[in-house]
Specification:
Layout: H1 3-30, E1 44-48, H2 52-65, H3 69-77, E2 80-85, E3 89-97, E4 104-112, E5 118-121, E6 129-136, E7 142-148, E8 154-162, E9 168-177, E10 189-197
Antiparallel strand pairs: 1-2, 1-10, 2-3, 3-4, 5-6, 6-7, 7-8, 8-9, 9-10
């Protein structure tokens, strides 16, 4: 197995172990046996607040992953998302608007609340998958950890923090390229954006 394949497997195992530990801490903190609460309060349609700092960070991630131009444009256009929830799963759907026709492309991933890994599309639109899992931290924040293998192996962390009123959602993101040309993992790129319920 090549260097990137070996690193990829080790990193995903570390991500899964970290998520399992976080899930266990959350279960202990809540005093129950559920990995994720039956309802997180995140269900609904959300619109992203414009933020140039977050947009610049997203562009830096796209450049590091060498995301193709058409995919970059599509990712930059995502200003709305829909979160659907059942007792067993949480689905996050990005709504990518089409030019001036009022229609959109729906790109989503459905995460089981059992804590199992799920496969979804790669962020860079290359063939292959991103493996992700969802957990809830001790403070009730939803965590999504995702990993894509080489080429451009990377780990993505998202933390979704719902406001007390339930009208605002802060999404903190950290992306790290694992197979940089410098011979090791690159510095993580961190940013956050604010979404408002519509």
């Amino acid at each position: 197995m090549g260097r990137h394949g070996a690193v990829s497997g080790e990193i995903f195992e570390a991500v899964v172990a970290e998520a399992d530990a976080a899930a266990q801490r959350a279960r202990v903190a809540r005093g129950d046996g559920h990995l994720v609460p039956a309802r997180t309060g995140l269900a609904g349609r959300w619109r992203r607040e414009p933020c140039e700092v977050a947009a610049a960070a997203a562009r830096a991630v796209d450049e590091a992953l060498q995301v193709p131009p058409l995919q970059r444009l599509a990712l930059a256009r995502v200003t709305e998302m829909e979160i659907r929830e059942t007792d067993d799963a949480l689905e996050v759907v990005q709504l990518i608007p089409l030019n001036g026709v009022g229609a959109c492309i729906r790109r989503g991933v459905c995460y089981p609340k059992t804590g199992g890994a799920v496969q979804g599309p790669r962020r860079d639109a290359r063939p292959g998958v991103t493996r992700s899992l969802l957990t809830v931290g001790p403070k009730g924040h939803v965590h999504i950890r995702a990993f894509q293998e080489a080429p451009h192996a990377a780990v993505f962390h998202e933390r979704l923090k719902l406001s007390v009123s339930g009208a605002q959602l802060k999404v903190e993101q950290k992306s790290q390229l694992l197979d940089s040309t410098a011979g090791g993992a690159a510095e993580p790129i961190k940013h956050h954006c604010i979404w408002h319920r519509v």
